[in-house]
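Record pair follows.
FIRST:
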Amino acid sequence: MRHAVIVLIAVSCLSVSAHAQTAEELVNKNIQAKGGMEKIKAITSVRMIGKFDGGGGFTAEQSQENKRPNLVRETFSLQGMTAITAYDGTTGWRIRPFGGHKDPQLIGEDNLRDLLLDADFDGPLVDYKEKGNTVEYLGHDTVDGDDALRLKVTLRNGDIIYYFLDPDTNLEIRKEVQEFIRGSVRESVVELGSYKAVGGVMFPFSISQGSKDNPRAQTTTVEKMEVNVAIPDSEFALPASLKPGAKADAGKK
C-alpha cells in the first residue's frame, strides 16, 4: 500500500512538471514567433499611429508611444481636441478635454491598471518569472471556431490574462483580461491580428477590444509603426502642475 502511494505521488509530480514545462515551452515558442528574445530586447522604443473605429461611423486618430523600461503615452484625437493618457514609470496622469477637463489630472489606482499593462514594454510573457507572473497551460480552446492554445497568466498584482495562441504561428490572437478591483471583477477582451514585422519583431496591426459578447466593439487599425525612434522622456513626464508642492508654489505667486 505504501509503495503504491509513493508511486502515485511520483506520477503526480511528473505530471505537474510536464504541465509546467508545456507552459514554459509555449511561452518560448511565442517569443520565438515574435522574432526571438535578442530582437525583442533590441527595441528600445515604439511609436504606433492608427485609426480608431468605435462603430456607427465614429472614428478618431489614435497613437501610442512606449519607451523602455515602462514609459507609455497614448493620445486620442477627435474634432480638434486631443486626450492624453501617460505613465512616467511611477505615476499615471491624463488630460480629458472631451469632458471639459483641460487641466492634467492624476489617474487613480483603479483606473491605472489598464495603463500599467500598456506600459509593460515587452508584455507579461517576456521575463514573466522576473516580473512575478505565473503561467499555466490550460490546453486547447477555440476562437471563432478555430483551434487555439490557452495560457493563463496570473500577474503579480493578482489580475489574470488568458492568452489564446494560434497553434500554427504561436502568436496571440486573443486576450481575456480579468482585473480584480475592490471585490469586483472588470473583464475585457482584446483580439489581435494582421501581424507584420517591424524591426524584425512581429506586431499586430489590427487590435479590437470589447466584452465577451461583443469583442470587436472598438477596433484600431495601425497605419504606421516605428521602432527605435527618438522619444524624449519629457513626453511621458508628469506635468508641473501635478508635481508635489505645485499648488503651494502657485499660491505664493
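SECOND:
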Amino acid sequence: MKTNIITIFAFLFVAVVSHTSFAQGKTVKANIKVFGNCGMCKERIETALDQGGVKLASWDTKTKNLEVVYNSKKITEQQIHELIAGVGHDTDKVKAKNEVYAKLPFCCLYRDHDHSGMKDDKHSNH
C-alpha cells in the first residue's frame, strides 16, 4: 500500500513538472527595425508592447532598433509588429495606417519630415 502511494505521488509530480515546463513556452529574442524620432516615440513604442508574453522591449532612438524578448507561446513576432504599427510606427514588416500616423505629434513624424536639425535631448522628456 505504501509503495502504491509513493508511486502515485511520484507519477503526479512528474506529470505536474512536465506540464509546467511545456506550458512555459519558448523565450525568443528579436531585433526589429522600427521608425520614429524621439523620446516620445520610444515611450509609445515600448508602452505598446506592455503586453502579456513580452518580457523586454527596448527601442534605440539612434539606431531605430527594437530589442524585444517574448514568449512565443503567448505572442508572435507578427503580433508585435502589428501592435507597434497600431500606435503609428512603421516596422520593417508592417506599415502603420495613415490615419494613425497622422495623429502623432510633429516631432514624431518620420515619413515625410526632416528632423535632422532637432536635437533628440529636447524630445527625450516628452
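COMMENT: The first helix runs from residue 2 to 23.
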